[in-house]
Amino acid sequence: MTRILYELAGRDQVRFSPYCWRTLFALKHKGLAFDRVPMKFTDRSTIADSGQDRVPVLDDDGVVTADSWRIATYLEEKYPERPTLFGGAIGQGTALMINKWVDLVVHADLRPIAVPGAFKNLDPDDTDWFRVSREAMFGMTLEALADGRDAAVERLGATLAPVRATLETQPYLCGDAPAYADYILMGSLMWPRCCSDAEILAEDDPINAWRTRMLALFDGFAAAAPTHAAA
Ligand SMILES: N[C@@H](CCC(=O)N[C@@H](CS)C(=O)NCC(=O)O)C(=O)O
Q1: Ligand 1 nearest-atom number relative to CA 56
Q2: CA of 35 to the centre of ligand 1 (A)
Q3: Which of 66, 103, 130, 196 could be 50's S-S partner, Cβ–Cβ 3.0 to 4.6 Å?
């Protein structure tokens, strides 16, 4: 039995991909052992068999699945006897909405914070490719994007208001214990954590206390991840 997670890696083992973090948390939640294979933006040969060009990709003993959401639903279906990620069909439907909200709304605020940080923490082979592709994607230089960092931190604080209000009444987004909706948002907060020195949450923010609890899960798995605050 082999289980391999192909994931994005920067320099010095920095892993800042929000989507890969969601899958890392999901595998840990299910208690499944896995090997990690790093991938560079400029060399995707290891995931050629997945029929697409993005990570995460999970190879679960020959069953190859791409896309963090599809991997989560695959794991839930394949390993129903292990701790549930969704708590049933209704929870899965609600988690999909959280997934879309984080991707479409929260990521817009995280980009000026995390993308310039990611640039400074890339594998050196990836820097030219990243600058060209991201500047085309955002229609501005990485430096101009970085200029919007403080405003983005302020917007993020407002965007996360529903999360804050939820965490004022329960310890995790999923209730008394963490599950996939928590991993979706936490995966995205690992993005700036791993590659930026921007402090995105106030000390007394309930989301900060939740983030601390999330970092401690699975014997401090996320807390132990390399961070290179070079941006
Ligand atoms: N919807 C996908 C998004 C995956 C994705 O965009 N991954 C990034 C790494 S963070 C990637 O592979 N990017 C390659 C590129 O931008 O060309 C998921 O949830 O897994």
Answers
A1: 20
A2: 19
A3: 66
Q: To test ligand 1's pocket by mutation, which of 6, 14, 16, 19 has the most ligand atoms within 8 angstroms of CB?
A: 19
* Percent of the chain whose pLDDT exceeds 90: 96
Q: Cα–Cα distances in Å, from 149 out to 3, 13, 142, 153?
A: 38, 25, 11, 6
- Whether a cis peptide bond, with omega within 30° of 0, leads into 56 is yes
Q: Evaluate if residue 26 carries a pLDDT over 50.
A: yes
Question: Could you read off the pLDDT of 69-102 as tens digits, one per residue?
Answer: 999 999 999 999 999 999 999 999 999 999 999 9
pLDDT band at 228 (very low <50, low <70, confident <90, very high): confident
Structural domains for the chain:
3-78 (3.40.30.10), 89-220 (1.20.1050.10)
Cβ distance 58 to 65 under 8 Å?
yes
Exposure letters 157-166 (e unless 16+ CB within 10 A, then b): bebbeebbeb
If one residue of 8, 54, 75 were mutated to test the ligand 1 pocket, choosing by the most ligand atoms within 8 A of its CB, it would be: 54
pTM for the full predicted model? 0.97
Three-state DSSP at 62 gives coil
